[in-house]
Design goal:
11 helices; mainly alpha; MetI-like fold; two-stranded antiparallel ribbon
């Protein structure tokens, strides 16, 4: 087989594999769009559920998911990016730091329900926050931390060493070099990892099941110590626990949740593209 034939065969195989991965996703999105679009309306997005959740809208659940996502970002981003900076720029390559990196990788693979039980034991019971937005946000933040740390560290390490050497040779301190040279170049990768982590948190059910999610709570939360409804758990409830629930409402709720997660991914892609154009390497 000639080199040209090998390249053609490889291209065909890669195309087939890509299609196998993409086609099911397109089918799922199309199916949800067709079946759920009829339920989407202004009232559906802005009104609380009513009549045993078989009518009305999803406003409390939608707002609760947005608040939990924001809380997760506040809890995970500063700590995660700070840990990544320390591991990439300050920590020496010792057995201890290698053990920490291994622990971070392992934490990323722990089932989300384990984080939910951890949040129940530590935040809800031990610290006494009760089932609240605060407890749910902290639990989701801890679950998101490994992803944020790993992606941020990789983005920082990917910055060419020349940026550091030139800055240090001009008299800048190590922190000034990290802040003014390394971090601006690593920001696209950091933002991508952070938003992908938040997208995962927005779609999780198990952690919020133990720490914040309410079965039915049409009132909007007044503080971070209140319970709230959330789209993932609300979708589970109306799909399995509510008799006589119209299928259009179930698909409409799923479509809104999917749109929320895809919006985060789209924002990450746009920000990454814009910042990569400004990058100097």
């Amino acid at each position: 087989m000639s080199r040209q034939q090998t390249q053609t065969l490889a291209r065909i195989l890669i195309t087939i594999v890509a299609a196998i991965a993409i086609v099911p996703i397109v089918i799922v999105i199309t199916f949800l769009f067709i079946n759920g679009l009829q339920a989407i309306s202004w009232e559906f997005l802005t009104q609380p559920p009513s009549n045993g959740m078989t009518e009305g809208g999803i406003m409390p659940a939608l707002l609760g998911t947005i608040l939990l996502t924001l809380g997760t970002a506040i809890a995970a981003i500063p700590l995660g990016v700070g840990a990544a900076i320390y591991l990439a720029e300050y920590a020496k390559d010792t057995r201890f730091t290698r053990l920490i990196r291994l622990a971070i990788v392992n934490l990323a693979g722990i089932p989300s329900i384990v984080y939910g039980l951890f949040g129940l034991g530590v935040f809800v019971l031990f610290l006494g926050t009760g089932t609240s937005i605060l407890a749910g946000s902290l639990t989701l933040g801890i679950m998101t931390l490994p992803v944020v740390i790993s992606t941020s560290e990789e983005a920082i390490l990917a910055v060419p060493q020349e940026f550091r050497l030139v800055s240090l040779s001009l008299g800048a301190t190590h922190w000034q070099t990290v802040r003014n040279q390394v971090m601006p170049q690593a920001t696209p990768g950091i933002i991508t990892g952070v938003i992908l982590g938040l997208g995962r948190a927005a779609g999780e059910t198990a952690p919020i099941l133990f720490t914040v999610a309410a079965f039915y709570l049409p009132q909007l939360p007044q503080s971070i110590f209140d319970q709230t409804m959330a789209l993932p758990y609300h979708l589970y409830v109306i799909a399995t626990q509510v008799p006589g629930m119209p299928l259009s409402v179930q698909y409409g709720t799923a479509l809104v949740l999917l749109f929320l997660v895809l919006s985060l991914t789209l924002i990450a892609s746009i920000l990454r593209t814009i910042m990569r154009r400004r990058r100097e390497w």
